[in-house]
Amino acid sequence: MLQLSAVGQHYGDHQILHDITLTVPAGQLLCVVGPSGCGKSTLLRTVAGLLPAHEGTITVDGAPVTGVPDSLAVVFQDYGRSLFPWLTVRDNVALPLRRRGLARAERRAEAERILDRVGLSGAARRHPWQLSGGMQQRVAIARALVCRPTLLLMDEPFGSLDAQTREDLEDLLLEVHRTDGTTIVFVTHDIDESVYVGDRVVVLSPGPGSEIVLDLPVRLPGRRDQIATRGLPEFVALRAEVGRAVRGKGVHAAGKADPADGRGVHESGSGVS
Ligand SMILES: Nc1ncnc2c1ncn2[C@@H]1O[C@H](COP(=O)(O)OP(=O)(O)OP(=O)(O)O)[C@@H](O)[C@H]1O
């Protein structure tokens, strides 16, 4: 479980985040959206322990975050810079296992297992620069998963991919989440994406001093499907509600209901206009 209590963040005199209080239960996929520059990436970097919180406290499974927790992995948008071009795909993925003291053969076997899972078993001996952008981001996801993190942070991971690749990776993420039960915090500027992948969507207000303006459980019937789910009236209603909050147009009362338990069927009907 991830807990943020009255977290504030500044760059110098510039206040970015104010009084962010949030509990993310184990196994939840939380999406964070908000206007450009409101502090989504700053929030993620603070949770990751890369920036110390100026105010408040953050705990992961009860332990205060004072540096990057061992149980945590991060995937950034810029896959091109996050992979080492001189290493093969398999060695990129195996790299985090070195710190765990696994022997070389074990590291390679584990990397190949994860690569198979993300649909890249045929690419293990290639180098990142020989792959498409979508394949490189699959490598970055594989590397994040190889240490079996309990908390996965993703900062606009599909933002620079074409629409088809993006949908494929959204579905890969959902499959990983369903199978592993990893707690995931997923930052995106894409409202549709947040509702499609999230169990819950949190919207931040524009800065300075961004706060949470909407905390919305995503209750959609059935297993998510790129065509069928996006056509559901429940999906359209949720998307409109998040869109209104991002644009500062007010929040429907259903948005405040039971946000920590964002699974199951959405019942509110949301009153979308
Ligand atoms: N290292 C830094 N030093 C000073 N200011 C920064 C730094 N990083 C970000 N900022 C500023 O903090 C604010 C929040 O930035 P952040 O990248 O967290 O927003 P964001 O919501 O993720 O933006 P976007 O949606 O455009 O990616 C912006 O005004 C940005 O210019």
TrEMBL record:
Record has ATP-binding as a keyword: yes
Signal peptide start and end residues: none
Short name of one Pfam family: ABC_tran
- Read off the SUPFAM superfamilies from this record: P-loop containing nucleoside triphosphate hydrolases
Does the keyword Transport belong to this entry? yes
| PANTHER family from the UniProt entry | ALIPHATIC SULFONATES IMPORT ATP-BINDING PROTEIN SSUB, TAURINE IMPORT ATP-BINDING PROTEIN-RELATED
UniProt-recorded Gene Ontology molecular function terms: ATP binding
Q: What is this protein called?
A: ABC transporter ATP-binding protein
The protein's organism comes out as: Streptomyces pseudovenezuelae
